[in-house]
Design brief:
The complex is a heterotetramer, with 2 copies of chain A and 2 copies of chain B. Chain A contains 12 helices and 14 strands. Chain A is of the alpha/beta class. Chain A has a 7-stranded mixed beta sheet, with helices on both faces. Chain A has a 5-stranded mixed beta sheet with strand order 9-11-10-13-14, with helices on both faces. In chain A, strands 1-8 form a two-stranded antiparallel ribbon. The radius of gyration of chain A is 19 Å and the shape is globular. The relative contact order of chain A is 0.12. The model of chain A has no long low-confidence stretch (mean pLDDT about 100). In chain B, strands 2-1-3-4-8-7 form a 6-stranded parallel beta sheet, with helices on both faces. The longest helix of chain B has 26 residues. The chains are: A alpha/beta, B alpha/beta. The structure holds thiamine diphosphate (2 copies) and magnesium ion (2 copies).
């Protein structure tokens, strides 16, 4: 099968959905023909669909989201790009109080079909303001859906599903994933929300991880296989809705679980998943649940410091060994 | 000049709002309304003047002080009242309450309790109009206090650069809770802020419903012609406290009295009587009509059931 | 001992600290002499300390926090009030990217001694925009401290500590606590951060809860005592730092734990606490960890709906009975 | 008129920034700098002109394009360079990098990577000055792009109503990444936005260091007298791409060439030579000096150790 990058997969999804439905349009800073997106995800789209449907905005994150909401509740299907995930902090009222709640507050009179695409993640040495991951915040907001694609295949299939969904979607990408090249079918496909994917089958330990950490978990699993530890890697693919059954079934099978996420440990993604297991599958656990994540620090600039805080194969392996022994 | 039937309609709408709000005040006093209320009393000319300049398919966005906006845009008194009472038959099935009235069927896109948050949303509705190629416009109501929010700046600027059909209607009632406008901005007329976005800014007497109407009509025409947004400042006054719990002692007595003399409803009534457009018995007739539909609305609202508790778990996702 | 309300206790703390240190000042919407705070916490302070030190601001949440930061890094000790906790969404960049990270990003060159006071919580029928609780978000932000006082005693002692702390503090109050009247000593006292308080000793089950839920947990405990179930109620008092030892010791003693918080369940405060226990005290658990919280919904307006989503004594008791049997 | 030594100092500072940035560009090309860089080349007259109008104890806040601000305010080249290289001896111990240079000892309150976020922080520093009763001022640098952020509106308004001693210095280089100023605002001069806050708004040629200096001096004087903030727009141009990865092909060639002719450094050099203030050999001498301290700075930075990994866990709390 042909291989394309994660960025190209996203681009294809946007292209196809804009072609399919003229209500779909894009807005964001520098998404248009001059820059084509900070990570080139909107490459070529302005040329094909014009400046009206691929709109460069001022640097106004709050209004980008607000405008998307207003368009969504009056019949359009906007896809908004926020250049860095950290900058969603500038638009939290619009995301959390408006997009997520309008339907509920108005008793179901409206729906808010919109997608907010934004990249999280560290690893490119751009320091504390542009390297965070706080998926967990959005999991805490009913009304939103939270999508976390880990491969080009998922990026395309989930983005197409997101654009067709009638709810506000936080579509969270990862900077280090954009250049990753993998197989993506040419034929149209959609990936449903709330369906985890078992990225590697195994019987000894379950690793639950998302986004870029899926790749580190897989790499760690290969190393562990040499030590005779057979790891199952489960990628939830959407954090809200979360495929609880798939996670719990894997834990029931292995009895041991390590959760790997790139966010700060306290009150992060790992907390929710661990709590879920402690609530619903405690009796199947043969060892404590270990969370591997960033320590509770901002992301530092210097690569030596940055690499120290980002979870790596070694820390993942150690955690797995700890729950196995 | 507007014809008689439209003038009478203006009068009726303003009266509906006035009496509605006084009824809400009374029901609140009788402990029938949960939460809090922010009454529109005294500001009726703004909502009515602006909405008169709109078409049925046009949109509005509203605020915590939003009953008047909903009524002016054509929402039903009974269902607004039911919502305020937390009933199942309310516009939002009891989930929204006084601060979140919405009626999408009449283009009322809902009220927000986050001051200033509707400005970018209104711009978004304007963008949708542009992209869909209809001839609608959006009127976005907000207060003097809201005009200091970052969303004011971002929302209006975006509408300006894209020539979106939005009327940004600032209801300058000179106070945000206990905070005087003059203590939180150095300029006198909020409309001056339009300069920052290269769009027209107009200040009108917000207690003169015809002045508001004419300014709004001009702005709506401009918007429909694709010439972009207008910032329309309507200077008005809330005759009651900020919310039901506020005695508004921070306002000088003389100031309140001076504004009561400029009451928009009385002024308009006097005007149409003076002009010979309406006679006292017609005034009386309208009053009776309004009292009657309001009574029916209250009965409807009072007799409606509360929602089932499990309704709380619905409408989260489409 | 004399009794004062939670609001009065906060007011006394502000009064005393402003008297003690002229660097302390207050800013926020309607905190001044005309309104004295939406919940009257700043009552009388403008009269005593003047408009310069008790500053009414425009409705500009982002600038309120930004101005506090600027003052804090240049020698002042601001106490900012955000009228409703939900509105911190308007200032998240300033709170999360600036206040919490400046010290770190600048290599320790500065400190950011400031307090953000704001009320969370439902129960007064003011609907989805003004009734949320998302303490968990702030727990996820290293650099912040998160304080959650449940009684007038704690309100005063913790606020004084917060004002003297050299870090940005999210001081989270609860609307329904303001009128609660309880004993508060006249003599000066401080309450250290990171020290949980056992609000009720018991041996059968541990309830961990904060803010207004402490009172519901205590009420439920009395009912459960009649059924012969002896509940221990632990109030962490600060969520960041979190007194892990106290929580874990209580769990070790009782072997059973229910976490009660008023936020939405998914990725809430309960998630972090449950994950912590599942990681560090799994072997002591005799039953799954149950979280009692709001379901994953926005807060509805009508009291009948609102009361349905807020955790109550009945739901707390049921959860306790479930972990006991 | 400024005396010779100050004029020479201006020249030296501008040259320090120019050469520093060219060195950063070179080191980045050699893969010695992690992350990205945003060079100040072409905008030197703004930082130098403004900082010349400030006292040592005054404050500045800075942006992602901040090396020049730090140098102009008196920060050391060697420690800035070490920070950019991620070294332990950098101003932030390697935790901040190019986008977060700070030197509190010289009143440089740090650079932010969140566009527009420093405006309210600068106002806060201004409030602190007022409350502490010192005669300091704050200069807040930001770009044309930043002026569309909500924080611009909120931050300036708050400084205005409280008469805070802040110079809001907008470096209008006509682009925010690939986005032209004219496509994201309808007004030509960003200084016009001052009207919205009732404060002075001044537009100057940002490539004329003396014009910048004079405007800043006037604004600083006003601020020190308790008369409040000024919005000072300096029209300038970045001679390179937005960041190291950007070839800036979105800019018309003629535009770039026209601006290169207005190069602030060459213009100032020509001016002081024409005026007879400085002779070519003095120019040469300054150049040699700057090259020397820059060489030393690079050696210092290159030879400095990287931080210990565990340094990542420090400085989170005071
Ligand atoms: C963003 C935000 N800040 C603060 C509040 C609390 N609040 C509710 S209404 C109000 C005053 C609003 O003033 P204005 O915009 O002038 O409208 P008015 O009440 O005068 O109609 C405030 C501060 C809020 N709801 N939202
Ligand atoms: C709030 C925010 N939005 C977007 C970005 C990404 N970004 C970094 S620099 C920049 C352009 C800034 O333009 P301007 O303010 O004019 O400054 P200049 O780069 O021209 O100096 C953008 C969009 C950011 N860092 N912060
Ligand atoms: Mg007002
Ligand atoms: Mg620029």
């Amino acid at each position: 099968m042909r291989q394309i990058t994660y960025a190209e997969a996203l681009n294809e999804a946007l292209h196809e959905e804009m072609e399919r439905d003229e209500k779909v349009f894009i807005l964001g800073e520098d998404v248009g023909r001059f820059w084509q997106g900070a990570f080139k995800v909107t490459k070529g789209l302005a040329e094909v669909f014009g400046n009206e449907r691929v709109r460069d905005t001022p640097i106004s994150e709050s209004a980008i989201i607000g405008v998307a909401i207003g368009a969504a509740i009056t019949g359009m299907r906007p896809v908004a790009e926020i250049m860095f995930g950290d900058l969603t902090t500038l638009a939290m009222d619009q995301i959390v109080n408006q997009a997520a709640k309008l339907r509920y507050m108005f008793g179901g009179q409206t729906k808010v079909p919109m997608v907010v695409r934004t990249p999280f993640g560290a690893g490119v040495s751009i320091a504390a303001h542009l390297s965070q991951s706080f998926e967990a915040w959005f999991m805490h907001v009913p009304g939103l859906k939270v999508v976390v694609p880990s491969t080009p295949y998922e990026a395309k299939g989930l983005l197409k599903t997101a654009i067709r969904d009638d709810n506000p979607i936080m579509f969270l990408e990862h900077k280090l994933l954009y250049p990753i090249k993998k197989e993506v079918p040419k034929e149209e496909y959609l990936i449903p929300f709330g369906k985890a994917d078992i990225k590697r089958e195994g019987k000894d330990v379950t690793i639950i991880s998302t986004l870029f950490m899926v790749h580190k978990a897989l790499a760690a699993s290969e190393i562990l296989a040499n030590d005779g530890i057979d790891v199952e890697v489960v990628d939830p693919r959407t954090l809200l809705p979360l495929d609880k059954n798939a996670l719990i079934n894997s834990v029931k099978k292995t009895g041991r679980v390590v959760i790997v996420s790139e966010d700060c440990k306290t009150a992060g993604v790992g907390a929710e998943i661990a709590a879920l297991i402690a609530e619903e599958a405690l009796d199947y656990l043969d060892a404590p649940i270990i969370r591997v994540s960033e320590p509770d620090t901002p992301i530092p600039f210097s690569p030596i410091l940055e690499q120290f805080v980002i979870p790596d194969e070694r820390r993942i392996s150690n955690a797995v060994k700890k729950v196995v022994h | 000049m507007l014809d008689k039937s439209r003038l009478l309609n203006i009068y009726r709408k303003m009266l509906e709002i006035r009496y509605f709000e006084e009824k809400v005040f009374e029901l609140f006093g009788r402990n029938l309304i949960p939460g809090t209320i922010h009454l529109y009393t005294g500001q009726e000319a703004v909502a009515v003047g602006v909405c008169l300049a709109l078409h049925p398919q046009d949109y509005i966005t509203s605020t915590h002080r939003g009953h008047g906006h909903a009524i002016a845009k054509g929402a039903r008194l009974d269902r607004i009242m039911a919502e305020i009472l937390g009933k199942k038959t309310g516009y939002c099935k009891g989930k929204g309450g006084s601060m979140h009235i919405a009626d999408f069927d009449v283009g009322m896109l809902g009220a927000t309790a986050v001051v200033g948050s509707a400005l970018p949303i209104a711009s978004g509705a304007g963008l949708s109009i542009k992209l869909r190629g209809t001839s609608q416009v959006v009127a976005c109501f907000f207060g003097d206090g809201a005009s200091n929010q970052g969303t004011f700046h971002e929302g209006i600027n975006m509408a300006a650069i894209w020539n979106l059909p939005v009327l940004f209607v600032c209801e300058n009632n000179f106070y945000a809770m206990g905070t005087r406008q003059s203590s939180v901005m150095l300029i006198e007329n909020i409309a001056e802020r339009a300069v920052a976005y290269g769009i027209p800014g107009i200040t009108v007497d917000g207690n003169d419903v015809l002045a508001v109407y004419e300014a709004a009509l001009k702005a709506a025409k401009r918007a429909r012609e694709g010439k972009g947004p207008t910032l329309l400042e309507c200077r008005t006054y809330r005759q009651r406290g900020h919310s039901r719990f506020d005695a508004a002692t921070y306002r000088p007595k003389e100031e309140v009295e001076a504004w009561l003399k400029k009451d928009p409803l009385k002024r308009f009534q006097a005007k149409i009587i003076d002009m010979g457009i309406i006679k006292m018995d017609e005034v009386y007739q309208i009053e009776q009509d309004v009292i009657k539909i309001l009574e029916d609305a209250v009965i409807f609202a009072m007799e409606s059931p509360f929602p089932e508790p499990a309704e709380a778990l619905k409408d989260i996702y489409a």
